[in-house]
Request: fold
Amino acid sequence: MRISPKTNNIPNKWYNIIPDLDFGVPPMMSSSGYALSHHDLDRLAPYSIIDQELEKKKRDLSIPKEVWNFYSNWRPTPLYRAERLEKSLETPARIFYKHEGGSPSGSHEMNTAVAQAYYAVQDEGVKCMVTATGNGEWGASLAIACNYFGIQCKIYMVRSSYEQKVYGRYVMEILGAEVVPSPSEKTFTGKKILAQDPDSPGSLSIALSEAFYEASGRDDAKFSWGTVMNHVVLHQTIIGLEARSQMRQAGASPDVIICAVSGGSGLGGLAFPFYQERGRGPRIMAVETVACPSLSKGRYAYDYGDTEGLSPMLKMYTLGRSFVPPNIRAGGMRYHGISPLVSALYREKQIEVKTYMQRKAFEAAITFARTEGMIPSPETSYAVAAVVDEALACKQRKEKKNILFLVDGNSNLDLATFKDFAEGAIEDESFPEEYAQAALEQLPEVTPP
Amino acid sequence: MRISPKTNNIPNKWYNIIPDLDFGVPPMMSSSGYALSHHDLDRLAPYSIIDQELEKKKRDLSIPKEVWNFYSNWRPTPLYRAERLEKSLETPARIFYKHEGGSPSGSHEMNTAVAQAYYAVQDEGVKCMVTATGNGEWGASLAIACNYFGIQCKIYMVRSSYEQKVYGRYVMEILGAEVVPSPSEKTFTGKKILAQDPDSPGSLSIALSEAFYEASGRDDAKFSWGTVMNHVVLHQTIIGLEARSQMRQAGASPDVIICAVSGGSGLGGLAFPFYQERGRGPRIMAVETVACPSLSKGRYAYDYGDTEGLSPMLKMYTLGRSFVPPNIRAGGMRYHGISPLVSALYREKQIEVKTYMQRKAFEAAITFARTEGMIPSPETSYAVAAVVDEALACKQRKEKKNILFLVDGNSNLDLATFKDFAEGAIEDESFPEEYAQAALEQLPEVTPP
Reply:
C-alpha cells in the first residue's frame, strides 16, 4: 500500500555524508602514490562532478534547477508499505520499500545520469558522454539523460550481455545511443584482450577500461560512472532524503535499512540520509551475492576501478580488478569493488553484510511479486531475500521492527531471468575462492602520502 | 515535462457517458433476438458488473473504497507536456499525454482489472476469474488484481503469443496465474478447432470463446472482459477524469483527443469525460491499424464478441467474428469489433478515425522515445503517428492547438518488436479485403425487439 505523499516535495539539495563522519575517508590515489587533485581528474569527468567527488566539507549540495525539473518528471518516487507481504509472512514487522522502478529508464540510475549529463553540457565543448554497462539499465539511463540535454551517448557494453541480453542493447539504440560490444577493436585495452582471446565474453571492468580509454583521449567527451564514486552516491541520496520525509509522514522510523549492493550507490543513496539518525539506531544491511562478495570476502585496499588500471585508485573492499565472477543473472552485482564510502562505513562496522544465492533471491522475488504486484530487478531480489529473513526473525522474536528496503528498479530488461528460473534453468552460484586469491595477489602496491 | 499535480486527488466516481448522450445506444441481444437483462448475464459476470454494464441513468458511479485504495498505489497518473517532441517537430501545437505506463502491470488495463476482481469477491462463492489475453498485458493486470483480492486467475492465451511472446506468459505465471494456450483441449470450442487444425495459432476471439465456455460452466468462476464492454469503458474513465482536472491545472483545454483503438476502452476512458465539454469542441480521433480497421471498414451491426458465438451480441462496428487479421505487432489491435459506446459515437460522427501502418507507427514511437525518454507500447505507437501528423498540420496552418493523447502502457513486454523494427524485420500490414468480406457475410441476422 502506498504511503501517499501528503506533499509532493522533492528535495532541492543532495546530502554529502562525509562531513558527518567521525572518521576519515581515504583519498583517491594516482598509480604513483599521491592523492589526486582536481587537476588530475579533469580530462575524465565534468568540472562540477570533480568538485562534488572531492567535496569534504559541505554537507548539503544544491540540486541545479534543470536537474530538479527533470527529476520532477517522476519524483518523488513512492514509498510503499508491503502489507500483503507482511501478512503472508505472518510477521509483526512492518516492511516499507522505496520504489525507484517508475523512472524513465525503470531504474534508480536515472538519478545520477541526469545530474552528470547536465554538468557535462555546462562544461565547454562536451558533446558526448562515454560509459560502460552490463545489462543496459545504466546505459539506458544515461542515453535518456544525454538526449534530454542534447548531447551524444556512447556505451561500451559487456559483449556477453550485448549478445544475450539483446533487449538492453536495443533499448539503448532506440534511445539513440551508440552501443559498442566490449572488448572491441576500438581501444588499446580491447585489442589487447581480443588478441589473447578473440572470443572473450568481456566484463564490466574491461568495458570500463575501454570507456576510460576513449574518454581520456577525446577533447569533446567525458567519462561517466554509473556507481561506486562519491558523486554518484551523492546524487542517489535523493532517494533517502525523500524516504526519510515519507517515513516521517507514515509515523515510522526504520530500525533496519536493507539494500542489495552492486557498486554501492543504491545503498548509500537510501541509507546515508538516515545516518544522522544513527543515535536512534537504524542498522544498515548490505546484501551481496555469494558469487561476488566484495565486502565479506574482499580486502580493504587500494585498487583500480577497471581491468587495465586506467581509473584512479580507490580505497575500497575489492576482490581484485582481474577477478571475473561466475555469470550470475544479477549482472549489476558482478563488480569487483564497492563504493569507497560504503567500504569506509563497513570498515567502521556501521554497515553489516549478508550474502545470498540467486535461487533463494528469485524465490523471494516471486513471493514479493505475488503479494505486492511487481516483479523486481534481479539485484533487488537479493534484498528481498534478506528482508524476508529479517521479517521472519522478527516473527520468531516477536519484534515489531520497521524494515525499509530499496526496489532499485523493475525487471523490464530481465524477464528472461525469471522465465529461466521458472523453467528450473538457473543454478546457484558459488565463490571461486582460488581465482579470487589470485586476483587479490595482483592488487597494486601503494604507499599512502 | 510533467504537469505536476497541484493536488493528488483521485476521483471517487467513474463517469457513465450514456445519460449525457442525445441518442440511444442499442442494447445487448441474445442470439434469439431479445434484449438481454440482468438475469441473462449473471452466470458470466459479477452481479455489480452487470449492473454497471446495463446502467443507463446514473452518470456518476461511486468507486468502492477498496478499489480506490488500490488505485492510490499508482494514481493519479502523470500528465506530461511533450515539449521536446513539440520542439523537434517545430510545431506551434502543444502536445499533452496522459501516461498510464506506471501502473503495476505497466498498462491502463489495471484500472478495470482491479474493479472487476473487487466485485467478483463481493459475489458469494467466486474463487476464480477467467479471461483471454493476447500479448499478456491484460492477463498480467488481472493476475495482479486477483492476487490482491485473494482469488485465482485463469487465462486463455492466444497460442501464437504463448509460444512467441514468452515474457508475457511468464509474467502472468510468476504472478501466480494459470495460463492455458488457446485453442486448448479443455473446452468444446478449443477441441473443435484443434480437430480441424492441430497447429492452429489461435486468435483472441477463439481464446474468448474458451474463457466464456469455462466461466459459464463453473459455479465458482466468472468471466472477465479486458475491453469492449460498457463497464470496462466506465472503469477507464478514471483516466479522463484525472486528465480533465490536470489539463485545467495546466490552463489548457484539449482541441483534439487522440487514442489508438483496440477494443475502444482506452479511447472511451480518456475522451468521454471531456464529452460534456463538447460545446467547446474537442475533436476525438480514433487511430486504427490498416490490418484491422473495425471502424473505417467494418459494418455497424450486431455481432458476437467471440468466434463461437458464446458472448452476448453487441451492436458495434465489426469486421465479423471469424475475421483473423494479419499478424501485426500491436496484438491488442487485432480484435474484430469495437466498443458499442465508441461505435455509437462514431456512427453519430462524434468520433473521427485515422488508419496507419506499423512502420510509420514505430518510427513515430522512436521519435517519441528519443525526445520524451520512454518507449511506448506498440498500440500507443499508432496514436503517436497520428499526433505527429496532427502537430505537423498545425505547423503548416500555424495553429496553436492543444493535442491530448493516451500512452496506454509501456513497452516492457514488446521490446522484441522494437528490436525487430530496428533490424528491418517488420513489414507493413495490409487489409485482407476478400477475407473480411467473407467474415462480414457470416454476421448473425438479428431482429431487434
Chain B has two domains: 70-106+230-440, 110-226.
